[in-house]
Amino acid sequence: MYKEKPLPLFSPARRLPHSQHPPRRRLHLRHITFLLACILCICYFTLLSSSSSSASSRSPSHTHSETQSDTSTTPQKQQPSKARHDAGKGVPPSKRLPASLLNNLTLTEEECRATFPGLMKEIDDTVALGPFDVKDTGEFGPLQGRIKDGKLYILHTQRRKDLSQEMVNSRTATLHSLHRALLTSPSPIKDTIFTLNFLDQPFGTCLTYSRPADPSLHSPDPNARLFLMPHFSFWAWPLPFIGSMSRAMEAITRLEEGPEFGGEGGWQRKVSKAVWRGTTWFSSVTSPGMRAKLVQTTKDKPWADVEALDWDGKGKSARNGLKIEDFCRYKYVIHTEGVTYSGRFQYLQQCASVVLTPPIQWVQHTTHLVRPLFSSDLNLTPRWEPSERVKKAWPVRYGPEEANIVFVAPDWSDLGAVVEWLEQHPDLAEGIARRQRELFVGGGYFSPAAEACYWRALMNGWAKVARVEGSGLEDMEGTPFELWAMTNGE
């Protein structure tokens, strides 16, 4: 058993339990009169403000700030509830955004920012670094393309026969996602020339899937820029246990909101174990033994369902694999990064389950929305202390009443203690799990609308600071994407 100390005051705004509030006192008559007068004044000015607002134009009256707070009060088409604007906290089922909005691919940028607050943070932060030069990467470098008059052209890219099938799939899916966002844009995207890296490892100046979370690992090159783009799996991922994002999301929703786990008591019906499947050799250079250590740490533990995948001879499927939605049957889901990021992360975040992971080292385009509870802040044995790099990467830590993910020791040494603590605090555990799903699914951050919104903001952001003059690329016409897609670089 683990000795428990009172929960620390993680947040200045920490609320007292109802039982700890002081007893109510009777109000004096003049206090009541004063209170009624205040209410009447508030109602008057609210009506006045509403009247003025309805007569105003549709454009925002103030600049939207990409922060995790209530940032927009401007009426928008299909505007979400005010509670929705506190990004990172999640959306109760009764206030979820409607499907008609989440599938709307034609939202303006103002509507996008109001509907999905905080979504564009990575873009805005990179644009704020200032102008950079776009250089010709040549036929053996990353793909380069052009956007002109709202249309997509391919300037040059690697030949299909020089790439693995996985690389071809990644490149194809990503370009289709970008192309769809351009076709459905309600206003023209700025003309530009861009560089797109579809490999796992980010480098140079390009659109890429991830970047290091630790700022000290960023390139010292003043011209280097990493613009994060949505993972290719938002279009499709031809793995037998994943498939398209829409298929997986529908399957997870049926599971989480159906008779098995939906409604009261659904959390208690989930399997009280931490689950993981993966390959032990597929690890980062910075954490080479992380996956193997996980399997070793959890071996024969009653609280764990952890197995290395047993692949068939062709490496296309695993005998002990789980469909991505079946991970959501467990209360606790273990997340491991790969060589860099893990494309599975956005699927696990759709579960109403607690994601357990070492501090994330590679940030994807929505990773900044996670609210980590560090297990080192709990009264557990053994206890670990986050390194300075981890503290720089994740300077803000949350309490169990606010968090939507749990960061455990990088060597998994406290994983069992964390699971035990969560089991002993089922209400807090369920809250962490619920806030994750309410944010990323209920808030629509993984929706087709959010993806299209992000792509358009990404390309406009790139165009705003990219300098192409003198690169030689400005004179290249390129191949229309529709034609290029028929051969895919052959």
From TrEMBL:
Q: Which stretches make up the Glycosyl transferase CAP10 domain?
A: 188-469
Region annotated Disordered sits at 1-22, 54-98
Q: Which domain of life is it from?
A: Eukaryota
Q: Name one Pfam family in it.
A: Glyco_transf_90
User: Which residues, if any, are the signal sequence?
Assistant: none
The record's annotation in PANTHER family points to: GLYCOSYL TRANSFERASE CAP10 DOMAIN-CONTAINING PROTEIN, KDEL LYS-ASP-GLU-LEU CONTAINING - RELATED
- This protein is called Glycosyl transferase CAP10 domain-containing protein
